[in-house]
Design a protein that fits this description.
4 helices
Length: about 110
């Protein structure tokens, strides 16, 4: 089957393919980062979900467990606003959650 026929069939099924230009892709894991240099990224859009296919040169980088978490003033302000708390409490929640904004908001809202 040639690529044009494949595109037509996928389009009828509601599936769209899109190539994304990227210089680097980083996947942040709990204990390490997976870095993909010179990636080829393909986005597949389906009616109910989107899926990325990534290939390239893979590097792994261990995370420093003892390191300080950098938290920006913008992150603190956002958490304070969304959780309806003062900036000090927002900063404490961000430190406790390792800088994860969503977790900090949920922690402060008691969810």
């Amino acid at each position: 089957m040639n690529p044009k026929q494949m595109q037509t069939i996928l389009k009828r099924m509601g599936i769209k393919l899109e190539e994304i230009e990227a210089e680097r892709v980083i996947i942040e894991c709990v204990d390490r980062n997976i870095i993909i240099e010179n990636p080829q990224v393909l986005l597949t859009k389906m009616p109910s979900q989107e899926m990325f296919q990534i290939s390239g040169d893979i590097l792994e980088e261990e995370k420093d467990e003892g390191g300080e978490v950098e938290i920006s003033e913008e992150d603190i302000a956002m958490v304070a606003e969304k959780a309806e708390v003062d900036k000090k409490k927002a900063e404490e929640a961000l430190v406790e959650t390792g800088g994860d904004i969503a977790k900090a908001i949920l922690l402060l809202k008691g969810s």
